Amino acid sequence: MNLNISTTSLFAVLFIALLAVLVLLGKLPVTVFILYLALSLSTFVIYWLDKSAARQGKWRTKENTLHLLALAGGWPGALMAQEKLRHKSHKQSFRIIFWITVLVNCGLFIWLLSVDGFALL
Fold first, then answer.
1. 76: burial class by Cβ within 10 Å (0-12, 13-18, 19+)?
2. Are 86 and 9 in contact (CB under 8 A)?
């Protein structure tokens, strides 16, 4: 069994694992964990559909849509899709904006863990 995993995939897996640990410790509502999982899975599927459409010359998903999904919390799924499907992994302008969405989402997530942020949950 080959368990070869890249640094970016490891980052996505570790983030999801961190969410699970925070739920188990009572520091994060389970709904936030489920939301990240659902968005990640949905984002992976949308990347897969977009890759398929690109191969067939069909209608494509807008890059802004992919960025919004990443920003909303689907970035772990997007990272996995970029690696496993080799989709949107080489276009530099897309990658720069993508990593900005990851940083913004992580910043908002960290804020949610603060007293003020947790009060919103």
1. buried
2. no
Cβ–Cβ < 8 Å for 14, 5: no
Q: pLDDT tens digits, residue range 73-116?
A: 999 999 999 988 987 767 889 999 999 999 999 999 999 888 88
**Would you state the structure tokens that stand for residue 50, as one six-digit string?**
């977009």
What Å distances lie between residue 73 and 2, 3, 65, 68, 95, CA to CA? 28, 25, 13, 9, 16
The residue assigned the tokens 């494509």 is: 60
User: pTM for the full model?
Assistant: 0.86
Q: Is the pLDDT of residue 1 over 60?
A: no
**Token representation of residue 116:** 């003020």
Contact 69, 42 (CB under 8 A): yes
Residue 107: both structure tokens together = 């910043």
Question: What pLDDT was estimated at residue 63?
Answer: 93
Q: How far apart are CA 69 and CA 66, in angstroms?
A: 5
